[in-house]
């Protein structure tokens, strides 16, 4: 669709640019002109040879793909906003997450450390707990469906999700799911269960630390044959995460780790020896930061080379202000409002901020989610700021409080420090 910018769905969602394509359709960057916010729009294409009955099944699956995550409330599950039927096919409007997938990170940088993989596993377990409690089985958990947005890990693509209260839409003889990550019992034709999702989590964590899934072969049939007949090779790079991964990859669902036992083993693996030194930021966080601030950098006229140079610097710029200390939540302004160019305080636990200093080199001052009541202060002469949920943060610029926004409304702005008022 070379003229995608002219297409507006349901009189409000404008297609802006293509983000990627998959087997079932295309994902677009879009703009919700009613709420003035960026969104992701998934265009689902219907095969040309579908019968009328098959088209009905396809539409039902589309609605289920939207309804599954829409029923769930978790920062680790992508948020769905709307479903639109336009031009004879369905479109799903959802939260725009400008971040790499786990698959992309593995392809780009190689296997993750056990600590980084464990952090991802912890949040995916949390997402699965919410889904399973609601009676929803994802059925397609794999690295390409896991986005890494700073410290946030987001499970996406519920296209194969199964709800205990819905009718199965999978045809007899049609294999659903990704062979390298599907549980053995599902590959054998049994109904997917929460235990099946836990197998897929184990295969995903295996791929995270080893660089490949446990049973990946040259083709689908070879992969399914290995899944049915071969023993899982113990991961060589999992470290303390090894017992979690092998426990999740038990072929018998009854012997496989339950959610509670997996969470317990994972916490013990992550606790490890304690020291007074703060661990380095996960490698995937830097990749997510680059994706998050790309739009800001482009708007400031900074080239890709300058961005890389800025990201490679160790530590903040010499003029960077250290993060503020935790303060009590309240209605009054926190200390430092009058003397700093920018002050941000978390109104809720969803206050995420990305703050950069634009210029010949771009310095990232913050890319974090603040605990409720905690504040950050910055006194640089010029700043670029992105706040994905403006209702979650209180913001003061040059001593003046900025108006808040609706839940989920994204605010992006440039701060220029004034000489008056501090």
Automatic annotation (TrEMBL):
Q: Which GO molecular function annotation, any one, does this entry have? A: ATP binding
Q: Which domain of life is it from?
A: Bacteria
Q: Keyword Transmembrane on this protein?
A: yes
Q: Which UniProt keywords apply?
A: ATP-binding, Kinase, Membrane, Nucleotide-binding, Serine/threonine-protein kinase, Transferase, Transmembrane, Transmembrane helix
Q: Where is this region: Disordered?
A: 256-279, 401-422
Looking up InterPro entries in the UniProt record yields:
Kinase-like_dom_sf, Prot_kinase_dom, Protein_kinase_ATP_BS, Ser/Thr_kinase_AS
- Give the taxonomic lineage as stored in the record: Bacteria, Bacillati, Actinomycetota, Actinomycetes, Streptosporangiales
Q: Where are the transmembrane segments?
A: 286-312
Q: Which residues bind ATP?
A: 42
Q: What is this protein's record name? A: non-specific serine/threonine protein kinase
Documented EC number(s): 2.7.11.1
Query: Which PROSITE patterns does the annotation name?
Result: PROTEIN_KINASE_ATP, PROTEIN_KINASE_DOM, PROTEIN_KINASE_ST
**Name of one Pfam family that matches:** Pkinase
Q: Does the keyword Glycoprotein apply?
A: no
Q: Where is the Protein kinase domain?
A: 13-270
